[in-house]
Amino acid sequence: MYASSLLARFMHCPTNRHYGTAKRVLKYIKGTLDYGLEYVKGKSSILIGYCDSDWGGSVGDCKSTSGYAFSFGSGVFSWGSVKQNCVALSTVEAEYISAAEATTQAIWLRFVLEDFGELQTEATPLHCDNISAIAITKNPVFHQRTKHIDRRYHFIKDALQEGVINLEYCPTNEQLADIFTKSLAKDRFNYLRGMLGVKSPQDLKGSVEL
């Protein structure tokens, strides 16, 4: 997801390097055509979210990339990797913006699930691996570190106070959205891919008919 999002930024002026990267992506897709998302029957019907961000990863304009993933039951069903619209001055700010963007997705998903008869009566847990960003969302006072941030991102505080979401801390090594924000080492990538519920045919044996 991150690789395709990154390549999409250069569709108007691709270079040979981008063509080479695109070939690697296609090679990966070809090698994983029989992989799938595993959904286990009987799991709790609770919407759970993860949000993360890199910091200034875009070389051209120093903007950060937000990533989010939402699971419902046993596997993810909604995810995204998007470059932020403004330059974050710190990792805290980048994570705060990422959490705000994930909150908009959480609100929409709650509406969709309600239409399907899966009303979310409790606040949706949204996992973030930055303690300072969480502290900012729970502080109703605008201070030196947040007064310059675009106002539209501060609505996350209202969502928190109204019980729509609950921003919770999770360790970085358990942050599933990390896979949507940057390139990762093979072992880390495979681990997070598995945690998202993406399984190989061998892993799915016994749970579905192949």
Furnish the topology, listing elements before pairings.
Elements: H1 2-8, H2 16-31, E1 36-37, E2 47-53, E3 65-72, E4 76-83, H3 91-115, E5 124-128, H4 131-137, H5 155-161, E6 165-169, H6 186-195, E7 198-199, H7 201-204
Helix pairs in contact: 3-4
Assign the CATH class: Alpha Beta
How would you sum up the global shape? globular
Main sheet overview: 5 strands, mixed
Q: What is the total domain count?
A: 1
CATH fold-type name: Nucleotidyltransferase, domain 5
Task: Note the quaternary state here.
Answer: single chain
The helical percent reads: 25-40%
C-alpha termini separation:
25 Å
Strand content: 15-25%
**Uncertain stretches of 5 or more adjacent residues:** none
Rg on CA atoms, Å = 18 Å
How confident overall, as mean pLDDT?
88
Tell me the structural class. alpha/beta
For the largest sheet, list the strands in their spatial order: 4-3-2-5-6
SS field, number of helical segments: 7
CATH H-level superfamily = Ribonuclease H-like superfamily/Ribonuclease H
Number of beta-strand segments: 7
Order of helices and strands: HHEEEEHEHHEHEH
Protein name: BURP domain-containing protein
Organism: Prunus dulcis
